Amino acid sequence: MLKYGTKILIVARDRHIQMLLKSNLAKEGCMVDQAYDGKSSFLKTRQFDYSLVLLDAAIPYQDGLTLCSKIKKDNEVPVIVLTHNKHQMLESFQAGADDCVLKPFSSTELILRIQAIIKRYTPRRSNDSMISNREFIKLSHLIIEPSAHRILADHKPVHFSLKEYELLLYMASNPNVVLTKEHLFHVVWKQEQPKNYRRIDTHIQRIRDKLSKASTVSRNMIQTIWGIGYILRDPV
Fold it and tell me: I need a surface site. Which of 33, 79, 162, 218 has the fewest CB within 10 A?
């Protein structure tokens, strides 16, 4: 069984496939989001945190495999490609797909594949994690409540994506410590050897932008250490 509330993005121009997938996933308790072309789907993967993307290779305005490659370079979300072309299977994996399913497909088999991939991607977190068990993390201009995934910047609530939250939580748990990009990738993305560090820079910029809407001071707490990484400075 998939975890209730698992959020999945379906990308397909064929509305019959959309309806079929949505119906089957809803029966599993999933939250389903939908997109019908490459541009809108890529924007969604940048705005929201999905457990998985189901991508039909046949989408308008942009080749599905090009979109797959684009998503995987920008995001850690797993992608399953749906295709009717056997020759596209190898190309799908070369584009970064985590799995490829031939159409027509068995709904039961597809659900099992989704379960397996999401399980593989689920971060391994220790039950006695000191960070997650802390009731509050209080800094001069930030308050984080890990148990509720709640962040206040100068007493104003700020909403973050899952990875943005995890990144800020880790930095706030280690204030006034220079954190290398390599270390942040290892801790937050669970990657030993990242392909590039732009993902870190992009997430930091998004965190700063969101904090600035609530508090300029809290935004400036995150400082860049050029050539090394970042530090969250707390004067108190």
Answer: 162
The yes-or-no verdict on residue 126 having pLDDT over 50 is no
* Torsion angle of C-alpha atoms 206, 211, 214, 218, degrees rounded to 10: -160
Q: What is the pLDDT of residue 193?
A: 59
* Per-residue confidence (pLDDT) for residue 161, from 0 to 100: 87
- Which pTM does this prediction carry? 0.56
A 10 A CB-CB count for 58 gives 17
Q: Is the pLDDT of residue 152 over 60?
A: yes
- What distance in Å separates the CA atoms of residue 144 and residue 135, rounded to the nearest whole number? 9
What is the Cα–Cα distance from 16 to 83, expressed in whole angstroms? 15
Residues 6+ positions from 21 with CB-CB distance below 8 Å: 10, 12, 32, 54, 110
Q: Note whether 153 and 164 are within 8 A (CB).
A: no
